[in-house]
Structures are given as C-alpha cells and as structure tokens.
TrEMBL record:
It comes from the Bacteria. This is E2 family protein E. Pfam families: Prok-E2_E.
Length: 126
C-alpha cells in the first residue's frame, strides 16, 4: 500500500530511510524503522518512529510523533518533557511525543519538514 506523495517517498528513498506506509484503525501512518538517535542522549541508540498522517496530508501537518521502545534520557533516566503518555497503534503501546506544528506551509512542506522537527525534538529533549 503506497499513499505517501511520490516526492515524500523519493525523499526517504534517496536518504536510505527504512520506512513502511501502514494503515490501521482507519489511520494512515509512516513507520520509520531503526532511527539512530543522538549519541549518548537516550537509554537506547535507536528506535522506531511513528508519524500519524492527517487525512489531508500533505496539505495539513502531522502533529505529534511516537517512538518504540519508550525513550528515557540517559542523563536522568526520566522521560523527556511531554513524552510520557501512551498511544495504542498497530497493537503496541507507543510513547507519544507531544510536539505540535503550527507553521506548516501547504504545498511547500512535506515529510522532510516532519523529519527535521523530530530530529530537533530529539536533540533538545530535556
């Protein structure tokens, strides 16, 4: 099943991102497999990242993202700020990272924008 816009799929393919387009419970999502995390920042070196896509994507922004396994900060063994709520999807309990996007530009932004937001959230997690 392929539902991502072609330019989003090409972006991921060109960067060697291991991803799956999935749909469950009436919700389309992008699953990024084995994403390497900032070195020394978390209690594991890599995690899967789930991005739920709104029905009007790419005209509307994905909101939050989710990780498995649940990530804790290596320095304190606590969850990052606003990342301590569970979200059930694909039969698993994902760690919800409550990071909202109010600056999405329809026709300009795409999955590359969301990946940058996730990268930034991981870098500044506290």
């Amino acid at each position: 099943m392929a539902f991502l816009p072609l330019k989003c799929r090409r972006y991921l393919d060109d960067r060697g991102v291991d991803f799956q387009e999935v749909e469950a419970e009436g919700q389309k999502a992008l699953l990024l497999k084995n994403v390497f995390l900032p070195e020394g920042r978390f209690d594991v070196p890599a995690a899967d990242v789930l991005i739920l896509l709104p029905t009007s994507y790419p005209d509307s922004a994905p909101d939050m993202f989710y990780t498995l396994p649940w990530l804790k900060l290596a320095s304190s063994t606590t969850y990052p700020r606003a990342a301590d709520v569970a979200h059930s999807y694909l039969g698993q309990s994902w760690q919800r990272w409550s990071r909202h996007n109010n600056q999405w530009r329809p026709g300009i932004d795409g999955i590359w924008t969301m990946l940058k937001r996730i990268e930034t959230a991981m870098e500044v997690a506290a």
